[in-house]
Structure formats: structure tokens, C-alpha cells
Amino acid sequence: MPLIDPQIREIYDSLVTTHADSPGYERFRQTWFEIIWASGEKEGDLLMDLKALPSGQTTLRRANFLDALVSLIPSEIVQFGKRLESLVEKSDGVHLTFEDGTIATANIVVGCDGIKSKVKEFMLPEESQHAQPRYSGMYGYRAVLDMADMVEAVGDQRARVSSIYIGDGAYGISYPIMRAEKVNVGFYILSDKWDCDTWVRPANREDMKRDASKMGRYVKSLVEVSDLTGSKETRLKLTSHETLKYMPDPSQWAIFEHPHISTFCRSRVAILGDAAHASTPHQGAGAGQAIEDAHVLAELLGDIRVQSKEHAVAAFRAYDEIRRPRSQRVVTSSKENAYLLCLCFDGVGDDEDKLKATFQERLHWLWNLDVQGQVEQARQRMMDFFP
Fold this sequence. Notes:
Blueprint: H1 6-15, E1 31-37, E2 46-51, H2 62-70, E3 84-90, E4 93-98, E5 103-106, E6 109-111, H3 118-123, E7 134-146, H4 147-154, H5 156-160, E8 163-166, E9 170-177, E10 182-190, E11 200-202, H6 205-212, H7 217-224, H8 232-237, E12 251-257, E13 265-266, E14 269-271, H9 274-277, H10 286-301, H11 309-341, H12 352-367, H13 371-385
Parallel strand pairs: 1-8, 6-14
Antiparallel strand pairs: 1-2, 3-4, 4-5, 7-10, 7-12, 8-9, 9-10, 11-12, 13-14
Helix pairs in contact: 1-2, 10-11, 10-13, 11-12, 11-13
């Protein structure tokens, strides 16, 4: 983010929640997640403390961050509330027609319009069916709880330290947000079929209890617990799935992902972020890929040597060549991470040593990227593509 604009990092740092926002938990400042067994003989025990050096876990409300980002854009060059209806490339530029009847013409277009991208549809009409979002084989429940309720349900440490609960065919997640005043909670369940036309369908507490039962005898028993005044040791072993009784009647959210497509650009049109490679949330990497995309592409288009539409096309081609392999690998690895968390990844299963090693290997590849190195590689390829 600071490579794109130092002000973005300043905004981010001013909004984030960390473990240090909970007094007494400064020692978890560099913790990303604690991984907790949710089933089997070890249920409730710590598998590992995953570190994210040096920052640790940082969370923020997307709406607050977006509002702050908008403030950096000069108002005279931006329009909001537009929905694309059609896109046609002509000799004098790319013509965009919007649902409100307005028309715009641009030298180049970069579509950042999400997993259901209209720009992508017009850019790759021959792949329009293949490129539709696909159900990933998992759905989940989501809620934001008051920290006080979470502490009552699971004890102070489990409420205040970001946690992932790994179980048989399902996993849970919780982490503090809003300066540790709230906790974001999610439960994700492997399920081959999603027989609903919408991505969200109504459910009830019994559905959620049934799905939580897949996480093993330990979590199943917690769902039934109503007396949380037991010993301190017992309270600290409770997991976030005890929060079921605090959650409103839930909805089930289908988890979709983006199939791999052949290119992120065509001529004077390109796509980035979720429009190009929307991933499942199981690795916490989707937004980061969009930021990496944006930095690389901005550096190319901002290069002083880019002076014509042909040069811009070369920049797009270089961006695609450098960014597509990594971002599409993240889509694949994010889905695989769900199987790791559900203890059913081939060759790993519930083996403690293999789980630890695999988590560390995956995060090392994900986090230890020389982004500026990608920029330089892309610049060289752009020059190779110059007419």
C-alpha cells in the first residue's frame, strides 16, 4: 500500500485493530491467528501460533477504509453510482455505456468491478460461460458480536486473540474488530451442492447447530452449554462456536470463486482484483492480490515511456504475464487451504507436524513477495512488447 501512495498506509494504520487494542494482550501483537483443534482428542488445544511478522493481525471495517480512500481522489475526476451496460472498442477509443444512459469514451479501461465483472464479459465474450463465478464447495455463516458477549461465551483470551478452529469437514474463525469492541465470527462447512439461485439463503439456528456438530464431539457439546460460570480453566477452553446462542437467526453464504481465465487483458481493456481472480477467503489473501495488481499496473502505466495506446497495450500485456500466474495460484491455494482447515487435505489430513509445516510453507510463499521485483520484471516485459 505505501508503494502505491504513502497516504494509504497512513489511513490504514489509523483505522486498524490489532491485538494490542486489548489491554494485557500486547504479547500477541505479532500473532496472525492461533490455530485451535476443534475435534478429536486434542479439541480445545493449541496447534500453533501463526505469526505475521512484524505486523501481526490487523483488521478494519471495509466501509471506513473505502470512505477514506475516496477522499484521496480529486472529486473532479471521479463519478460514483455507475453500472456498466456495454463496452465497445473502436478506433477512437473504448466506448462505455452505463445503465443511466450516460456514455463515456476512454483511451484505456481497467475493470475493477468485482467477481461478476461486466468489463470481463465484454473483454472475453468467448469465455463468458467458463468465466462465470463458480461455487467452491463450501458455505458459511457470519456474524459480528459484541466483545462482552464473546468474552462471556468463550473466555477472555479466545475472544480477544484471533483464532481459527480446525475440525472434521468444517472450520470456524473469530477475530477482534473495531478497536476490540466487536468480534467477527464465521463458520464454514464443506458441502458439494448449492441448490439455490442466490448466493445467500435463509437458515435457522437448528441448521447452524447441525453444521457445527460436524466439528466434533467437543464443539457439539459446547453448543448445548448454557452455564458459562464454570472454572477459569473450562472457560479458557471454550471455543467461539459457543457463540451460537448469541447469534441472530443466520443466513447461509455460499462461497464462490473465479475460474482461471486465459488473460487479464485484451487490447486496450484490462481487469484486476476480483474481476480477474476472485478467491475464497480461506487464506485471507484476496484483497492483497488486488493491491499487488494495482501497484504493478500503476507503475507500468505511469512509466514516462508509455506515450501511446500501443504502449498502454504493451503495459497491459506485461501486467498480465507477471501477475496472472501468482494471482491464479492464490485462487487455487485458497481453496486448498479450506481442505487443510477441514483436516482433509490430501497427504496432510490431521497430522500435526504436516499441518504446521504446510501452513508455514504456504504463508511464506504468500507473504514473502518482492513486489518491487515484480514491477521491474513487468517493466522489462513491457519494453519487450513495445512496437
